[in-house]
Amino acid sequence: MTAMGFDSPGGPDVFRAEELPVPTPGEGEVLIRVAYAGVNRPDVIQRMGHYPPPPGASPIPGLEIAGEVVAQGTSVTPDAIGQNVCALVTGGGYAEYCIAKFSHCLPVPANVSLAEAAALPETLFTVWHNVFQRGWACDGETLLVHGGTSGIGTMAIKLAKLFELTVIVTCGSDEKCAAAVKIGADHAVNYRNTDFVEEVKRITGGKGVQLVLDMVSGDYVPRNLACLAEDGRHVTIAVLGGMTAELNMAQIMVRRLTLTGSTLRARPDAFKDLLCDEIFRTVWPSVEDGTLRPEMDRSFPLAEVGAAHTRMEAGDHIGKIVLKVGG
After folding, report:
1. Which segments constitute the Enoyl reductase (ER) domain (predicted)?
2. pTM for the full model?
């Protein structure tokens, strides 16, 4: 099979095609002929040398795929072969074939394209776990999301609106703010020309938001905390702005704030089993009936993965970038 790997970390031009043996599925696993693979920020960070795959994971990037199950290991339901599925994987997505745990796969409805299906798992699993499980989001609350037009940001908007939250997002241009509102955000703040802390206070009448989904960290954290209402929750899922923050712990105690965060890739399979099952029961009906769709940006051929990474790093995309791998 053809896969896109790299010999040493670097820029988008380090990718090169390589021929590898088609992997064999083990117990509880399936082999998927990949039609599309999603491109995510962790792929970029891995390519740069800052996010090595966990032990046992494929060194080939790619954390979400969609395609047809063509082989299966033991302990997998007999009718798996021939199913179109999308899957969350720990690596290996930038290849013509990829191994996935069958318990981390979701069936692709007939009315969902494989390109759209490949754009769902990473963002859907991440947002569901961090906004609703760790962040305890409830109907009627207000959520602040940074990077409102990213893959995570657009999914956060759409999921939050499914469950009747008010959504405030920050974006880096007026055009992106307009796009975020069109996608479903109630308010969009251009952080380049507006103090988002003051704007959140204005929008909420000084009450603040109940939840912040933070992908920046660093010096954004104290500003995010200033946006929170009493008993508010702050959930960090990336540290694009730095790994350290200076906090006033007395304010956290007095206002009863909760700070948490998570990464997904290295979590145990059993955790992902439960997460996938909850998403299937709670969210997947909205995918099946057409209510929930990923926001799609562009598709690139697998051989042009470097161009896909360049687009992501430039920050011009709105929604998900995917790679077309197979027919």
Report:
1. 10-323
2. 0.96
Q: Give yes or no for a contact between 151 and 126, defined as CB atoms under 8 angstroms apart.
A: no
CATH number, residue 147 = 3.40.50.720
Query: Average pLDDT, stretch 16-35?
Result: 97
Tell me, yes or no, whether 211 and 305 share the same domain. no
What are the backbone angles phi and psi of residue 168, rounded to the nearest 5°? -110, 130
DSSP 157-171: HHHHHHTT-EEEEEE
Pairing mode, strands 296-301 and 105-107: unpaired
Check: CB of residue 107 under 8 Å from CB of residue 74.
no
- The pLDDT of residue 78: 85
Residue 13 phi, psi (nearest 5)? -80, 0
At residue 214, does pLDDT exceed 90? yes
Q: Both 243 and 304 in a single domain?
A: no
The whole-angstrom separation of Cα 127 and Cα 211 is 13
**Mind listing the pLDDT tens digit for each residue in 154-177?**
999 999 999 999 999 999 999 999
Where does the pLDDT of residue 86 fall: very low under 50, low under 70, confident under 90, or very high at 90 and above?
very high
Residue 192: is it exposed, middle or buried by C-beta count within 10 angstroms (0-12/13-18/19+)? exposed
Domain that holds residue 229: 124-261
Cα distances (angstroms) measured from residue 66 to each of 26, 127, 170, 178, 229:
19, 19, 30, 30, 40
H or E element at residue 36: strand 29-39
Q: Report how far residue 164's alpha carbon sits from residue 34's, in angstroms, rounded to the nearest whole number.
A: 35
d(C-alpha 180, C-alpha 184), whole Å: 6
